Amino acid sequence: MSTIRLTMAQAVARFLAAQKTEIDGEILPLFAGMWAIFGHGNVAGIGEALHGVRDKLPTYRAHNEQGMAHAAIAFAKASRRRRMMACTTSIGPGATNMVTAAAVAHVNRLPVLLLPGDVFANRKPDPVLQQIESFADGTVSANDCFRPVSRYFDRIARPEQIIPALQRAMTLLTDPAECGPVTLALCQDAQAEAYDYPESFFAEKIWKPRRIRPDADELAKAVELIRNAKKPFIVAGGGVLYSGAEKVLSAFAAKHGLAVGETQAGKSSLAHDDPACLGSIGVTGTGAANALAEEADVVIAVGTRLQDFTTGSWALFKNPSRRIVGLNVQTFDATKHNALPLVADAKVGLEELSAALQGWKAPEAWTTKARDEKACWFAASARYTDATNDKLPSDAQVIGAVQRTSAPTDVVVCAAGGLPGELHKHWQARTALGYHMEYGYSCMGYEIAGGLGVKMADPSREVIVMVGDGSYLMMNSELATSVMLGHKLTVVLLDNRGYGCINRLQRATGSESFNNLLQHTNHVTLPDVDFAAHAAALGAQAVKVKGIAELEDALKKAREATRSTVIVIDTDPLISTDAGGHWWDVAVPEVSARAEVNTARKKYENALTAQRVGD
């Protein structure tokens, strides 16, 4: 057996550079790069190794460890999980800064390889700088925080251990069902230790997506259930896009007269003007999609994990005889809430399901209802996104302005606060992957870093990041990274002077406004943040606009810009779209001195009677 003597860190770098993928007949590096913020726990080992392969595996420097991991995660999502990135940090705060991002990837089933440095395996210099010491367990380090938010976790204490660890990591990162974050904690002394590695370990390997076909018995049961349906309805989740199944979904819906509601992750599976597309479903759903979901007797859930925002906290599907067909690569998701599982890749699963349903269509009256409900919703949405307003604009009106000045290939990126709900309802996606929302973990601070990752995945598309002032203040440093790397973003910053979304929820549950909007916080002086000046200080072009007309002009200029532009606009924190939507289970206090809370509790208890859990 031929061997080559390398340090463990050099072996990691060389192995990652050898992994490939094939997309549309083109062989590409599976890992598009390594994000790195160096410290004493990785600069001497991984840092030296990455320098040696910089022509094959580029290294990118960020300004925040969580931010760079968000960028890597967004890159993978925008690449349909066909390509990915890795992230390396030192031990201590550098590592734990990535834990939140790991949770984002875990919830959203997205691949990212995390390589935090770790303590000395030999323990001779313990405790080293930044080392966490457990009084009860000598094997614990800060990196153990990654265990619950990683699909696979391993601590590499000897150089040869990296061989099975990387092989296991690649299996998970590329598996459509098990996909998620992998953490390999690299002890800093082991990174620098040499070993005679088999040369075969570094042979080029091409990873192709596994297309899981449905079991014959599961397929037959699903077909029988659907054929007997009078009011069938499709819920499209992120698995549709990861599978590249959007054209198959459109053809399936058209052939069988079905309508489709989209989750946050599944939005843009169909173009907004596709006859089958009723838009968003659930708590932030359109009136059209939710009207059909309430009556549906068979729900065909394709590539969705059926979280509470999709199901209206399991109170949306009101038909007492409704059944769910769970078409999903992951059995865990396919069997939720007593669903009839159809464990399969979304693309081949829909193809085989359609072939088995040959000649069958949903009742014409049901298809007509879907068309009528869609027309009603479009008219309602237009009223909310219209530009006319004498006061501060709403989020929906800002969305309308962005929509009117956008191109079909543009990508809108968002993550948390009130914007996801308004975008889910109103944004009219025209091409696949044109809507990029991190709403599985709803992580504030994802927006700008995520936009950077989306732009890196496809530089040909204009990327528009929509972010509130609260999220911007939490994490904005990757704006500077976008300028540094030459990846232009257009950032629309909506300043409602606080956490407007949660303030509205607070009031809706009977409480007084408290500690959300800046004016309701404990303060001596209210901050007056000059967001445009701040963005300019980070290297971006920046402007503050007054009103929708100025916003549209600024958006048109931003399209012609060569570097990132931030457009700031003041918005009303109290206005949101009251059309569409659905109840969401947010527990209201059972007793309170406030009459408003007691009233809200009675409404809450009444709403709970509509929940159907486990049937």
Structure characterization notes:
It comes from Microvirga terricola. Keywords: Hydrolase, Thiamine pyrophosphate. InterPro entries: DHS-like_NAD/FAD-binding_dom, Myo_inos_IolD, THDP-binding, Thiamin_PyroP_enz_cen_dom, Thiamin_PyroP_enz_TPP-bd_dom, TPP-bd_CS, TPP_enz, TPP_enzyme_TPP-bd. It holds the Pfam family TPP_enzyme_M. Residues 219-353 form the Thiamine pyrophosphate enzyme central domain. By secondary structure, the protein is α/β, with parallel strands linked by helices. It has three domains: 3-207, Thiamin diphosphate (ThDP)-binding fold, Pyr/PP domains (Rossmann fold, 3-Layer(aba) Sandwich), CATH 3.40.50; 216-376, Rossmann fold; 387-570, Thiamin diphosphate (ThDP)-binding fold, Pyr/PP domains (Rossmann fold, 3-Layer(aba) Sandwich). The protein is built from 24 helices and 23 strands. The strands form five sheets. A six-stranded parallel sheet has the order 5-4-6-7-9-8, sandwiched between helices. Helix 16 (395-404) crosses helix 23. The model has no long low-confidence stretch (mean pLDDT 96).
